[in-house]
Specification:
four-stranded antiparallel beta sheet; binds manganese (II) ion; alpha+beta; binds guanosine-5'-diphosphate; 38% helix; 13 helices
Length: 386
């Protein structure tokens, strides 16, 4: 789950990281009031879940309260990479001498948190990572040992941070690591962390992503979710407890088991790629899927208007195919799909399941025996409706 910039920075502040004393506005009038209270100049910053707001015109420096009003009016309602700006952060403008990049993320291959830091921070960190990866200092943290002072000193020195700032940099890095681990974050990023004209370090931008699997024990963070930028289908899936990721293809996949779900997606690509046909989603209905869950999954798949065919691929282990079949019938009577559905049931009670489906004589249902056959039939059906 992504936090907005203001949420990330307020979280940083709770861990002792210095941030500008800004506030959030939902209207230009509020922005003006905050600007007068803070004293100009201020920066008006779009709060949307995308990077590169600066380059997209979503970060503007206002010299007085009237200008704050005007820029807030420009930015509120603006669309950045498909997301509509509904709130802006009004921050006192920082006097920036130097922009630093500082982030902690998961290094999955090492199974450890990884610190990335560069003296050349700011707006082009992705470009820097491509062109001169050596300009980014990387240091792993052993989660048992924690972050040691020799590591923060090493990072500050290796990145070429002026010596005068090592102590406060070390303290910010330790706070960021505490924030990262205590918040169950996947990413805690400050870009830029600035050195001001007065020689202070200040977190001017923040981005935190919380591990969804840990939200149950992060209630204070969980309530901060802003789902407005999320596809409707993903919100529905989250509420139904179904693992679902929306993709760009035309074949809606309903599968049990993450591995089988990925294989099914690969198969639709294998046979559909030449015609630009592929999976519309990843969906794992989980083990022992109830009729209600099958119905929820079908509703989620069909809420994506790109879907031209549904491919149901179930391997019955603990899940019984006859129960899934009953679930599909319930789902069809509730959801009334208007696209063909290719159904493959294998494993426990498969013949009973297939019998239930064929006896129901629902229009638009195509039975398949093998996964190859199912994928080919689904691709053909999607192509026909192109
Ligand atoms: P991003 O583009 O979405 O990463 O948004 P940032 O918050 O990082 O802002 C982009 C850039 O705007 C920063 O790298 C700074 O160069 C500039 N900027 C942001 N806040 C301030 C500020 O308070 N003062 C000044 N002078 N520049 C700022
Ligand atoms: Mn930034």
């Amino acid at each position: 789950m992504k936090l907005h910039e203001y949420q990330s920075k307020f979280l940083f502040r709770d861990f002792g990281i210095p941030i500008p004393a800004g506030q959030v506005a939902k209207t230009p009038a509020e922005a003006r009031a905050i600007a007068s209270q803070l004293g100009a100049p201020v920066v008006i910053k779009a709060q949307v879940h995308v990077g590169g707001r600066g380059k997209a015109g979503g970060v503007k420096l206002a010299r007085d309260a009237d200008e704050a009003h005007r820029y807030a009016a420009d930015i509120l309602g603006m669309e950045i990479k498909g997301l509509v700006v509904q709130q802006v952060l009004v921050d006192p403008a920082a006097d920036i001498q130097q922009e630093i990049y500082l982030a902690i993320t998961n290094d999955r291959s090492a199974g450890m948190p990884l610190i990335m830091s560069s003296i050349e921070g700011g707006m082009d960190i992705e470009e820097l990572n491509r062109s001169r990866p050596e300009a980014i200092i990387r240091e792993r943290i052993d989660p048992i040992l924690g972050l040691n002072d020799f590591q923060t000193t090493h990072i500050a020195s290796a990145m070429g941070m002026p010596r005068a700032h090592w102590r406060s940099f070390g303290s910010i890095l330790r706070s960021l690591y505490r924030c990262y681990s205590e918040s169950d974050a996947e990413l805690a990023e400050i870009n830029p962390l600035v050195i001001t004209g007065g020689g202070e370090l200040l977190a001017v931008d923040g981005k935190v992503i919380i591990d969804d699997n840990a939200l149950y024990r992060q209630p204070k963070l969980a309530v901060q979710r802003d789902a407005s930028g999320e596809p409707e289908s993903e919100s529905l899936a989250r509420e139904a407890g179904i693992s679902y990721i929306k993709l760009d293809g035309q074949i809606g996949c309903m599968v049990n088991g993450a591995g089988l779900a990925m294989t099914t997606m690969d198969m639709t690509k294998l046979y559909g790629d030449a015609d630009n046909i592929g999976p519309a989603n990843f969906l794992d209905i989980g083990g022992g899927a109830s009729p209600a869950q099958v119905a929820a999954a079908l509703r989620i798949i069909l809420s994506d208007d790109k879907v031209r065919c549904v491919l149901i691929n179930i391997f019955g282990g603990i899940t019984r195919c006859d129960e899934v079949a009953a679930g599909i019938l319930t789902a069809c009577s509730e959801v009334k799909p208007n696209v063909p559905m290719v159904i493959r049931l294998q494993g426990t009670n498969a013949s009973e399941g297939n019998a239930i489906i064929s006896q129901a004589q629902i229009a638009n249902i195509i039975s398949a025996q093998t996964l190859t056959q199912a994928a080919q039939l689904a691709v053909a059906a999607a192509k026909e409706r192109a």
